[in-house]
Automatic annotation (TrEMBL):
This is Ompetence-damaged protein. InterPro entries: CinA-like_C (IPR036653), CinA_C (IPR008136). NCBIfam families: PncC_domain. Residues 5-152 form the CinA C-terminal domain.
């Protein structure tokens, strides 16, 4: 749990409010943050959007994006992260969509993440795909922990992207 305590301390030190947009992890990232005293100063909200309809309704993920790239894709994760920022007062978002079980379309353990930052009216996003091993529960736990522990590094990437003139 010390890793998550360090993430909360980082968010507080940087004056950041986080929102999570979770599909495969189904709220585990927000829950892990909730275990840390003082997390309320760093966590604004958590969206659990398991179905395509919930992703669309709550975070404005386009059905066209889902159909074109698949439910488990960095493109969907990016739209989830941006939608979470727009639906909250947070300045930083982490989104996760993935597969915990093997199925006909995707290999189990494939997790797509997006990290989005809004600053000065501009937003930027970065994404990644990570593969985890284990059973369904273990994959989800690893995925949630990874999403949070990557925040300091991804925040630095997002700031660099802003400085280079990226974003909308």
């Amino acid at each position: 749990m010390q890793e998550i305590e360090q993430v909360v301390a980082f968010l507080r030190r940087e004056g950041l409010k986080l929102t999570t947009a979770e599909s495969c992890t189904c709220g585990l990232m927000a829950s892990l943050m909730g275990d840390i005293p003082g997390c309320g100063k760093a966590l604004d909200s958590g969206f659990v959007v398991y179905s395509p309809e919930a992703k669309n309704r709550l975070l404005s993920v386009s059905f066209e994006t889902i159909e074109k790239f698949g439910l488990t894709s960095e493109e969907v994760a990016c739209e989830m992260a941006i939608g979470a920022l727009k639906s909250s007062i947070a300045s930083l978002a982490v989104a996760n969509t993935g597969v915990a079980d093997d199925n006909q379309e995707d290999e189990g353990g494939t997790q797509c993440y997006a990290y989005a930052l809004i600053r000065g009216g501009r937003q930027v996003v970065v994404s990644e795909t990570v593969q985890f091993d284990g059973d369904r529960v273990e994959i989800r736990k690893q995925a949630a922990r990874h999403g949070l522990t990557q925040l300091p590094e991804r925040y630095a990437q997002l700031l660099k992207k802003l400085e280079e003139g990226g974003g909308q």
